[in-house]
Amino acid sequence: MAWSLLKDDFARASAIPAGYFNKTFTDTVPLPHPVTFPDRDSLAKDTARRPVIKRTIDTIPSVMPDSLHLTDTSRISADSLKADTSGIRISKDSLSAPVYYKAQDSIVMLVKKKEFRLYNKADVKYEQTQLTGNTMDFNQATGILTSRMGIDTAGKPIDKAVLNDGSTSSDMDSVQYNFNSGKAMIYQTRAQYGEGFVSSQKVKKQPDNTVFGFRNGYTTCNLDTPHFAFRAKKIKVIPNTLIVSGPANLEIEGIPTPLFIPFAIFPLSQGQRTGLLPPQYVVDQQRGLGLQNGGYYFGLGEYLDVTVRADIYSYGSWGTTFSPTYRKRYKYNGGMNLSYALTRIGDPEVKQDYTRSQDYKISWSHSMDGKARPGTNFSASVLFGTSTFNQYNVRDAATRLNNNMSSSITYSKNWIGKPYNLSIAANHNQNTLTRQVTINFPDGSFNVNTIYPFQREEMVGTPKWYEKIGASYNLLFRNNMNFADSSFGKPAMFDRLQAGMQHQIPLTLSIPLFSNLTLSPSINYTEKWYIRQQVMSWNEQRRNYDTTYNSGFYRSSAVSTGASLATAIYGMYAFKNKNSKVQAIRHVMRPNVGVSYSPDLASKDYYMVQSDTTGRMSRFSYYDGAPFGPSPAETFAGLNFGIDNNLEMKVKSDKDTSGFRKIKILDGFGVNSSYNFVADSFNLAPFSLNARTNLFDKVNISFNGTIDPYQVDSMGYRIDKYTWKGEKFSIGRLTQANIAISTSFQSQDAKSKAKQKQKEEMEEQEGVLPEAQLEEQRRQMEMMRNNPGDYVDFDIPWRLDLSYSLNYTRGRSADRLRDTTIFTQGLNFSGDFSLTPKWKIIMSSGFDFRLKQVSYTTLTVSRDMHCWQMSINLVPFGSYRQFSITINPKAGILRDLRVNRTRQFFDL
Q: How does pLDDT run across 548-561, given as a tens digit for each residue?
């Protein structure tokens, strides 16, 4: 309960300064009890007599002896007393705010000495400062409050003193706090600042919360006896700014190490700060001793920051990265990485073993907030560089195994309320293995959405058939260049320039014939424009083709018309036995058939050229390799047909509220082809097959293939004769097929619900967090992908991902004398398992059955050492082999304090 003593009544009752009782007394005793004070005469006779708060079961009387009234007022502030018209003066030693205090056992007041004492779980609060402990003494004359911890019957400390000033919280053996000055003297204390903990033998705390410590230890380990600490004699803590110490020594498990540092600075401030980025010490077998990722961070304000990092090695290799990021909330955000590296491997005196490579890599990402300019969007994802950059400067397997770099810059514009839109893009694709580069710029489109010119402005009743006629317009334009990366920026690059434009005007109509049958006739006109013709000629000496180009303006056109029918047919077989586990099987067929006609308008675009030493002639187009390709060369009048199937069964289930659940047996199985009635040969097109299913919601299976219905001659050329009309019956020749199977298994995660909740909370904050914080999250995700051993989930005991792929290709040898059948199949797996709750093994590998060798393999062993993390990364064989061991603290503030040893081996 809270008590407030009225100053004027008590001033008349005793000689105690009135300001002293300008506080609130709180007792946690379950039953209320009165306060018994001696009267004025008794005090005059016996000055040693002490008023004591006694435990009773009596109710509090409405009037205490000598007019000492207990009221329901929770406090009487100094401001209200100053406004009192009674004329009573305020004591000089009164405080500016009330003091709230309570204790579990008892509160003893020494009126004469102006002191009170609290026993067992004492708690005192003054303004924003709160102090708890086992016992407390307060002296009003000095304004000093002393708190001490307790000791139980076993001699162990209990109820340590805890001082909380609103910004930091510290526990200690004892503390002396001065209410008047705000200073404190603390003994054997431990305080938390951000991710770090500071323990001190003795601390002097200033009114501005600045702390001066004596015989200190700084650590990020949250144990009472930390695994490691930086020991320093003197330390200074400026809250929310930094921690500074003098000479410090690293201590591990209480044992001092030879590692000394002349001073230490641990930042505590949040937000953007300009400063140094400490390097990481590494040992690289190919490059020597090195310092990685050292540099400087420039915080240039709310909208821009720049990070400059550099690597340097003792054998002469070095590299640098310039990384600016920019952002404007609700507008846009992006970042760029410009990297340059000079790699030297081997001894320059031994030419055959020496490698020198200059590489660069540029990446840029930009995204625009959809609310910034409705209807307009600009985005960029750019990645290009030299073909050998990843070979010498990348260590994670995923990036090293990826032979493609691609870029895309896109601008799009939608006119609100208008049926048209515009899109312009620049694209780039680079194969680091073949060293071929393809650039498309500009690559754009202008589309007019389907409009219905015969439709009434106000639709009333059923629309007429002609009101469903729709028309649209699509314009595509493209410039592309395909060249070797060695000719970048040279005339040979621009000699490969190809440009073109394509116009399409489709007319569509949809007519429902029956409830499940729809007729869709259409007419489509296409016209293509080119700026160059390509002419191929056979070179008998080199037994190859010579290519020449004719510049100018050229056009090609095509027209097609057709109609299609589509429907769905359902069939079900129900089992008669009602107790059967399987109750029914349902089969759904979705056939489609269409007729189309397209006249030959582009025969002039084709010519015949000798294709081999036998004199055989092949047909080529002047526009092979041009944007949008050539137009069809033959008249087509025929059928397009296909069918897709779905199969599922209905089984009993106790887990479903309906008592049944559906299981998919076959998600889909389809066949598609076409037949040309007016072709002089090869009327039937190859059959395209596809199938897909998901077994037990665990195993994903997909298949696709191509069947050619025609026979071939002794040289492997197709002849106009169906395979089923040969000596042996056959539905066709399987020329290409692919099957892929994948599955994933993992044990139950005990913290899955908590993690899912945290993920949902992060997703909800996507639009609330500042762009700088979102960018930092993206950087952390990138670090997790590149350093899987440093970010291990020990809550999942094991996990396994499996994938198998089989590719079949049937062709002909180069001399065309024999068939060639190529099987490419591979098994890949990745996963992890915990040897113990603190040891995790992560592995990724596979097997190539055609080459009969193990594919790229990585092995990571991770050890959770509470406040430290150890990871061992191994690439045991292959053209790129590596071994590295890294030990580093988990806390982000000490992330750069890592020990790394790396050995790398290249097959150049």
A: 888 899 999 999 99
Q: Which two structure tokens, joined as six digits, stand for 386?
A: 């030299």
Token pair listed for 639: 């059928």
The first and second tokens of residue 616, run together, are: 């055989």
Distances (CA, A) of 540 to 260, 543, 547, 611, 707: 77, 5, 14, 10, 35
- For 758, residues 6+ apart whose C-beta sits below 8 A from its C-beta are none
Smallest Cα–Cα separation from 810: which of 705, 729, 731?
A: 705
pLDDT band at residue 216 using 50, 70 and 90 as cut-offs: very high
pLDDT in tens, 423-454: 999 999 999 888 899 998 889 999 999 988 88
Both structure tokens of 170? 């510290």
Amino acid identity of residue 664, one-letter, is K
Q: Write out the H or E segment, with its range, that includes residue 778.
A: helix 771-786
Say which DSSP state 835 is in: E
Neighbouring residues of 709: CB distance < 8 A, sequence distance ≥ 6: 684, 686, 687, 722, 723, 724, 731, 732
Contact between 456 and 467 under an 8 Å Cβ cutoff? The reply is: yes
More confidently predicted of 634 and 762: 634
CA distance 634 to 676: 10
Provide DSSP, 335-375.
EEEEEEEEEEES-TTSGGG-EEEEEEEEEEEEEE-TTTSTT
Please give the pLDDT value at position 169: 74
Check residue 91 and report its DSSP letter. Answer: P
- Provide the pLDDT for residue 27: 39
Q: Helix H segments across 354-498?
A: 389-393, 397-401, 491-495
Question: Using CA atoms, how far apart are residues 147 and 166, in angstroms rounded to an integer?
Answer: 18
Say if residues 558 and 602 touch (Cβ distance below 8 Å).
yes
* Owner of token pair 């005196």: 349
Q: How many residues does the chain have?
A: 908
Q: Which of 433, 430, 414 is nearest to 422 (CA)?
A: 414
Cβ 253 vs Cβ 228: under 8 Å? yes
- Residue 1 has a pLDDT of 30
Q: In terms of DSSP bridges, do strands 880-889 and 899-906 run parallel, antiparallel, or are they unpaired?
A: antiparallel
* Residue 271: partners with Cβ closer than 8 Å, 6 or more residues away: none
Structure token pair of residue 368: 């625009």
Q: What is the mean pLDDT of residues 877-884?
A: 80
Sign of CA dihedral 447, 452, 457, 459: negative
Does the N-terminal peptide bond of residue 442 adopt cis geometry, omega within 30 degrees of 0? yes
Tell me: the pLDDT tens digits for 493-502?
A: 888 888 999 9
pLDDT at 790 over 60: no
> What CA dihedral angle connects 863, 866, 869 and 871, to 10 degrees?
0
74 band by pLDDT with thresholds 50, 70 and 90: very low
Cα–Cα distance measured from residue 647 to residue 668, given in angstroms and rounded to the nearest whole number = 8
For the whole model, what pTM was predicted? 0.65
Binning the chain into helix, strand and coil, the percentages to the nearest 5 are: 10, 55, 35
Residue entry with tokens 């650590």? 219
Please give, one letter per residue, the 3-state secondary structure of 385-403: ECCCHHHHHCCCHHHHHCC
pLDDT in tens, 339-385: 999 999 877 888 777 888 999 999 999 999 888 888 899 999 999 89
Q: Give 538's DSSP letter.
A: E
